[in-house]
Write a structure and sequence with these properties.
alpha/beta, 11 helices, globular, binds iron/sulfur cluster
Length: 338
C-alpha cells in the first residue's frame, strides 16, 4: 500500500532492526515527599534493551505490573521516557535523531484492549477510520475509499458497517474497526496491547488469524503485549519476559517454551493450564506477589520468590547474557554456552 519513494519505505535492509530500544527507563514519582527530599518513585521500566526485527512478532509477557504496557506506551511515545534511546529503522527518534515524532507516530500504530473506549461514540465507523489519513493530508474521498477497502479486508463489509456507530457493534467488530483504523495510516509497526484479551475465545481466534494474514500481506511488524501465554505461543516469533521493570529472558518462542531458562519464566509457563489432565498442576508454581516496585530488592529482583536463590543473588544483580543461540537470560545460575 506504500507508494514508491514514500518516507515510510524500508531504509536499512532486512538485517537492520525495525525498532531498537536501548536503556529505556520510566520512574513514576509518588505523591508526597518533603521539601528537599527525593520523592519515592515506582520503577515501572528500569533499563530495558531489545530489538524488533523487520517482519517479526515480538511478544512481551509478564505478570500485571511488570512494566510491559508501560514499555509499549513509552515506545509509542504516549508517555515520555526518563531515559533511553529509540531507533526506528536505524534512525533516532525525536531528540535522539533525524526522525520527527510526527513521522514516527505515523509509522507506528497501537491497538488497545478496550475497543469501546478507543472509538469516539459520536463518529460512524467510516468517519473514525478515515479521520487519521485525512488529518495527514489525504483528500476526503481518497481517505473514504481507503477506509471502505480496509473495512472489507478486516471482515466488515462497508455497505453494512460503514455508517454504524461503535455501540451498534460487538466487541470483536469494534476491534476489527480499531485494526482498520490503525492500518489506515499505513504503518510499519503495530503495537497490540492486550488487543484480544477482552474477546471471547472463538472471536479471539478469528482476530488473531486476521492479524496473521494482514502481517503477511502488508509486511507488518508486531509488538504484541500480553499476559496470555497460550495466545503468545500461537502468534509470536520471539518472546521477551519482563519482571519488575526489567528483561529477565528473551528467545525464540518455541525454544523458550520448550526449555525456559529463567526460574521466573519456568514458573509463568508452569502456571499455564494444560489441556492434558495428566499434566495439570495442583500447586501454584509462583508464590506470593511481586515485591514493591518502589523499593525492589537489591541484587536479583526475583530472589524473594525464587526457589533457587543463593547468597550471590542478594549481592549482585544478574546481567542479561546470551545463554544459547538468540536466547538471553539474566540469572546467576545460567552460565550460558561453554
Ligand atoms: Fe533465582 Fe538467583 Fe537466578 Fe535470581 S539470580 S533467578 S534469585 S537463582
Amino acid at each position: 500500500m506504500t507508494a514508491p519513494g514514500s518516507t515510510l519505505m524500508d531504509r536499512g535492509g532486512p538485517a537492520q532492526p525495525l525498532l531498537t530500544v536501548r536503556g529505556l527507563r520510566k520512574h513514576f514519582a509518588l505523591r508526597g515527599g518533603g521539601f528537599g527530599r527525593d520523592r519515592a518513585a515506582v520503577r515501572a521500566v528500569d533499563g530495558v534493551d531489545f530489538d524488533v526485527a523487520k517482519g517479526e512478532t515480538l511478544a512481551i509477557v509478564g505478570e500485571s505490573g511488570c512494566g510491559k504496557s508501560t514499555t509499549a506506551r513509552l515506545i509509542a511515545r504516549l508517555i515520555e521516557p526518563d531515559g533511553g534511546e529509540l531507533l526506528f529503522d536505524g534512525e533516532g527518534v525525536g531528540q535522539f535523531g533525524g526522525l520527527a515524532l510526527k513521522d514516527y507516530r505515523r509509522r507506528l500504530q497501537m491497538v488497545f484492549q478496550d475497543s469501546q473506549a478507543s472509538l469516539n461514540p459520536r463518529l460512524t465507523v467510516l468517519d473514525a477510520v478515515a479521520y487519521g489519513p485525512q488529518v495527514h493530508g489525504l483528500a476526503r474521498e481518497a481517505a473514504r475509499e481507503r477506509t471502505r477497502a480496509l473495512l472489507a479486508r478486516v471482515g466488515l463489509p462497508p455497505e453494512v458497517f460503514a455508517q454504524r456507530y461503535p455501540h451498534e457493534l460487538s466487541g470483536g467488530q469494534r476491534q476489527r474497526v480499531n485494526i482498520a483504523r490503525a492500518l489506515a495510516f499505513e504503518p510499519r509497526l503495530l503495537i497490540l496491547d492486550e488487543a484480544v484479551a477482552a474477546l471471547d475465545k472463538s472471536v479471539q481466534a478469528q482476530v488473531l488469524n486476521l492479524l496473521q494474514e494482514l502481517k503477511a500481506e502488508q509486511g507488518l511488524t508486531y509488538l504484541f503485549i500480553s499476559h496470555d501465554l497460550q495466545v503468545v505461543h500461537y502468534i509470536a516469533d520471539r518472546v521477551l519476559v519482563m519482571y519488575l521493570g526489567q528483561v529477565v529472558e528473551t528467545g525464540p518462542v518455541d525454544a523458550l517454551y520448550a526449555a525456559p531458562r529463567h526460574p521466573y519464566t519456568r514458573a509463568l509457563l508452569a502456571a499455564v493450564p494444560s489441556m492434558d489432565p495428566a499434566h495439570r498442576t495442583e500447586r501454584p508454581p509462583l508464590a506470593g506477589d511481586p515485591p514493591d516496585p518502589v523499593n525492589p530488592p537489591a541484587g536479583c529482583r526475583f530472589r524473594d520468590r525464587c526457589p533457587l536463590a543463593f547468597s550471590r543473588c542478594a549481592a549482585e544483580a544478574p546481567l542479561l547474557r546470551i545463554a544459547a543461540p538468540a536466547h538471553a537470560v539474566a540469572c546467576h545460575l545460567d552460565a550460558g554456552p561453554p
